[in-house]
């Protein structure tokens, strides 16, 4: 079925950093350093004519980026990049990166279990949400500072000049994890002219958004800016049994900057910021009520069965999302003749606490909490040249040091034992008696598991680019990056359920040997078992016992195995697994760019990229198959020789999986052409991009299976165009086509996916808009209307749903669930010459409904949950610029 409802169907510390221009990367400082002879770039209080800035006439935008260490317009830049200006963000009422995808079609953003779990995809490649040990393949930089986790990226966007989305691997230009692409957010720096703005928005669901900023001089050489934002909104999901609402907004942030610039060779920019999120998020509706639904009803639970778009939840507790992100950076640039030395030093802290009723029913069955802390230090240095001759270069370095700590756990509620006993057909008391478990011990109210994970990551890279102008129109570029990355991690977990701590095959074997020897089961030690198995007199009996032990028709205990979903955990490091990864890589870029004439530019790029190993910081972390081979149905007694078994450290019900996923290595061939004529601009990029070892992170129902896909590739094209039929009317049209395939993925969580299409990647994505600006007489006042449309073609949501029988059955059930998106947004703004604006806006005008993702319901085999899209929102904004 297509779970989409729409009103229409359609179409070594001490390294440095900088903001100087580098090939293939739009640079913040260099672009800002250019004299802005138009007020259309930022539409802010940075005046060039001494008058208050108002909304510009449509079509007057001049976007400056720097791709070859000199200022260029977007059309001249030989790289596939989309730029969203601050004006567009305001007109489209885009307040955080989650909504950015509606104006950047090669970018897709997905928010899952909590406010902190957001994943960015470029050209279909992306990962990192829900597992703090996995850094994203799409790197996010804010004013040149790398944000390593999505929880540090998603707060409301404040005072943004532009957002640049660089597509394809960028490792030769960025020091950390840019194997799929880059999102670079550039904010406005302090100004030496006093100015600022204030805005107030009110929308449905009692949405109140307040923003303000002020900037100006402190002295002739020091300027400041201070800005803040506050965003609150009622939830749009009713928790029926608690008479509460979830999926709300409650976030605020503050930012302060100082800029030293006396006109000399040294400029310094200091930034400090703090943001806070305290929200009840996120709603997961029931997509498929499986066989466990009757047990939920039996213990007094309820759920809006098979109707995720009811926006009605039944929970026994409200979800908690408490996130703090704060830090500071110091950016210094020193001009040395025709060269520039730039440094960015940054330190950031992230604190995220999440608690959720993970069975998503009103029955008090299972809840989960996660408490995460991430401390990050980065240091960059870049030396760039700006010679008059044909040769220019960049040489840089990047240092990264990060500590991650997570404590987490699952808790059984008061209804846990009745619920799981119902699933067992009432067999728990008898099973406890047979296994020697105290009556009532299984699924007793209280802790089910407790985890403690740590990760320490240190890496550095050295990179450089060289531009050689063969002629005035032909330029060759070469780049390199060497990265060395080391990770040390510890994994520890306590599993408190006594039933999960017993292997049911081994329990049967021990019981039968005890009966054959007429001894107590406690007397059947490993030595006794070995003697019984090897004694010629009892060896045939042992064979018969082991055959019966793995036969469900003979061993009734095996029926309880599905309830052993939180088994004992083998901690890391141990005698076999050191808890370390060490990676190093050389990446390269080669490009030829040719200016055909003053209106046409073409380029061809070959580039490679790299992302280091990621660590599975989840309760589904398990040894590699090369380190351990479990016996039938997880038996230790019948397990063959393996390093972990032979070391004597195996625990009952130990399975295999992965502790970490190895590096991602990307490669792209890209051919682009850019046309720029009066009233018309078009950018087209054709690409063939491959990721070897793509790090797949799949939710299994209780944890995450992290594994490397052998190879995933995508071919396609990206088209961006702008048509200005008049100065007042501007059309934009962007189209992305992606044709992805798993070239090799034999060890996915749902079996061999080799030769299949990766889920969640639409074939076609469209983002188009029309903006009309009408001057009202000769007053200087403007009326600005904007309509934009975003479309994703129908695509399967998930490759397979774990827990639905065989791998083929898991993949078959997933084929029933797809997503298509058709979203219209609109705004109308009255902008006065004195700087006052009044806007009305609506997002998701047609109240488009679709599932953003599905997953196997926690501890409810055969059921599926999913995240529905946000309903229509609308409101008014009053803004004053001064």
From TrEMBL:
Motif, TonB C-terminal box: chain positions: 865-882
Positions occupied by motif TonB box: 62-68
Highest taxon, organism lineage: Bacteria
Lineage of source species: Bacteria, Pseudomonadati, Pseudomonadota, Alphaproteobacteria, Sphingomonadales
Residue stretches in coiled coil: none
GO cellular component, one term: cell outer membrane
Gene Ontology terms: biological process: iron ion transport
PROSITE patterns listed in its UniProt record: TONB_DEPENDENT_REC_1, TONB_DEPENDENT_REC_2, TONB_DEPENDENT_REC_3
Organism: Qipengyuania pelagi
Membrane-topology annotation of the record: Multi-pass membrane protein
Protein name: TonB-dependent receptor
Family in the record: Belongs to the TonB-dependent receptor family.
PANTHER family with a match to the protein in the record: FERRICHROME IRON RECEPTOR-RELATED (PTHR32552), TONB-DEPENDENT OUTER MEMBRANE RECEPTOR (PTHR32552:SF81)
Keywords for the protein's UniProt record, in alphabetical order: Cell outer membrane, Ion transport, Iron, Iron transport, Membrane, Receptor, Signal, TonB box, Transmembrane, Transmembrane beta strand, Transport
Domain TonB-dependent receptor-like beta-barrel: 289-845
Entry-linked Gene3D superfamilies: TonB-dependent receptor, beta-barrel domain
């Amino acid at each position: 079925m297509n779970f989409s409802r729409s009103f229409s169907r359609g179409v070594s510390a001490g390294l440095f950093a900088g903001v100087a221009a580098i090939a293939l990367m739009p640079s913040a400082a260099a672009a800002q350093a250019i004299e802005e002879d138009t007020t259309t770039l930022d539409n802010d209080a940075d005046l060039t004519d001494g008058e208050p800035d108002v909304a510009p006439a449509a079509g007057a935008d001049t976007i400056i980026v720097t791709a070859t260490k000199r200022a260029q317009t977007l059309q001249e830049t030989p790289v596939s990049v989309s730029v969203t200006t601050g004006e567009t963000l305001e007109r489209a009422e885009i307040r955080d990166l989650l909504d950015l995808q509606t104006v950047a079609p090669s970018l897709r953003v997905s928010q899952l279990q909590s406010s902190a779990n957001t994943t960015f995809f470029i050209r279909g490649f992306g990962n990192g949400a829900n597992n703090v040990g996995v850094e994203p393949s799409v790197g996010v930089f804010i004013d040149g500072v790398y944000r390593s986790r999505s929880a540090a990226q998603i707060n409301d966007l404040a005072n943004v000049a532009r957002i640049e989305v660089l597509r394809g691997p960028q490792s030769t230009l960025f020091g950390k994890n840019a194997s799929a692409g880059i999102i670079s957010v550039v904010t406005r720096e302090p100004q030496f002219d006093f100015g600022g703005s204030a805005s107030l928005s009110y929308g449905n669901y009692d949405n109140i958004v307040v923003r303000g900023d002020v900037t100006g001089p402190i002295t002739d050489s020091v300027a400041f800016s201070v800005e803040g934002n506050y965003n609150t909104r009622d939830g749009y999901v009713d928790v029926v049994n608690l008479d509460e609402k979830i999926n709300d907004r409650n976030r605020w942030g503050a930012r302060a900057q100082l800029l030293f610039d006396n006109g000399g060779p040294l400029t310094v920019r200091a930034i400090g910021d703090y943001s806070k999120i305290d929200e009840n998020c996120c709603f997961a509706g029931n997509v498929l009520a499986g066989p466990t639904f009757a047990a939920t009803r039996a213990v007094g639970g309820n759920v809006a069965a098979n109707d995720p778009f009811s926006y009605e939840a039944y929970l026994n507790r409200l979800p908690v999302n408490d996130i703090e992100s704060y830090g500071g950076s110091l950016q210094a640039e020193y001009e040395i003749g025709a060269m520039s030395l730039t440094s960015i030093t940054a330190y950031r802290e992230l604190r995220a606490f999440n608690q959720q009723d993970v069975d998503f029913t009103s029955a008090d069955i299972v809840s989960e909490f996660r408490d995460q802390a991430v401390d990050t230090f980065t240091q960059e240095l870049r030396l760039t040249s700006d010679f008059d001759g044909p040769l220019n270069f960049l040489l840089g370095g990047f240092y990264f040091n990060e500590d991650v700590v997570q404590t987490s756990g699952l808790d059984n509620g008061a209804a846990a034992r009745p619920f799981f006993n119902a699933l067992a057909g009432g067999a728990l008391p008898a099973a406890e008696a047979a296994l020697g478990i105290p009556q009532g011990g299984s699924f007793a109210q209280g802790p089910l598991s407790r985890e403690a994970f740590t990760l320490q990551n240190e890496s550095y890279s050295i990179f450089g680019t060289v531009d050689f102008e063969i002629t005035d129109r032909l330029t060759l570029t070469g780049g390199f990056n060497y990265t060395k990355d080391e990770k040390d991690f510890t994994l520890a977990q306590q599993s408190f359920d006594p039933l999960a701590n017993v292997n049911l095959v081994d329990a049967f074997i021990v019981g039968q040997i005890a009966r054959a020897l007429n001894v107590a089961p406690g007397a059947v030690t490993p030595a006794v078992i070995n003697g019984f198995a090897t004694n010629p007199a009892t060896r045939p009996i042992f064979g018969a016992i082991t055959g019966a032990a793995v036969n469900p028709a003979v061993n009734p205990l095996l029926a309880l195995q599905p309830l052993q979903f939180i088994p004992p955990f083998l901690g890391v490091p141990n005698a076999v697994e050191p808890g370390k990864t060490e990676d190093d890589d050389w990446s390269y870029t080669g490009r030829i760019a040719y200016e055909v004439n003053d209106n046409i530019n073409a380029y061809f790029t070959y580039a490679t990229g790299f992302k280091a190993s990621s660590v599975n910081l989840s309760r589904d972390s398990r040894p590699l198959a090369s380190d351990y081979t479990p016996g039938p149905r997880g038996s230790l007694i019948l397990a063959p020789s393996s390093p972990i078994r032979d070391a004597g450290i195996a625990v009952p019900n130990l399975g295999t999986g992965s502790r970490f996923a190895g590096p991602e290595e990307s490669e792209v061939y890209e051919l682009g052409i850019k046309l720029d004529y009066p009233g018309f601009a078009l950018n087209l990029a054709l690409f063939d991009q491959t990721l070897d070892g793509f790090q797949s992170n799949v939710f299994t129902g209780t944890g995450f299976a992290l594994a490397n896909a052998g190879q995933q590739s995508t071919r396609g094209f990206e088209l961006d165009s702008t048509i200005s039929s008049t100065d007042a009317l501007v059309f934009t049209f962007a189209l992305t086509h992606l044709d992805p395939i798993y070239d090799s993925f034999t060890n996915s969580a749902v079996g061999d996916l080799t030769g299949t299409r990766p889920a969640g990647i639409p074939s076609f994505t469209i983002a188009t808009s029309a903006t009309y600006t009408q001057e009202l007489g000769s007053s200087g006042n403007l009326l600005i209307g904007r309509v934009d449309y975003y479309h994703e073609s129908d695509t399967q949501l998930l490759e397979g749903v774990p827990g639905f029988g065989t791998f083929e059955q898991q993949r078959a059930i997933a084929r029933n669930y797809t997503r298509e998106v058709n979203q219209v947004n609109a705004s109308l703004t009255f902008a006065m010459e004195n700087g006052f604006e009044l806007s009305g806006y609506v997002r998701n005008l047609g109240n488009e409904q679709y599932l953003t993702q599905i997953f196997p319901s926690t501890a409810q085999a055969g059921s599926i949950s999913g995240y529905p899209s946000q309903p229509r929102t609308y409101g008014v904004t009053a803004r004053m610029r001064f």
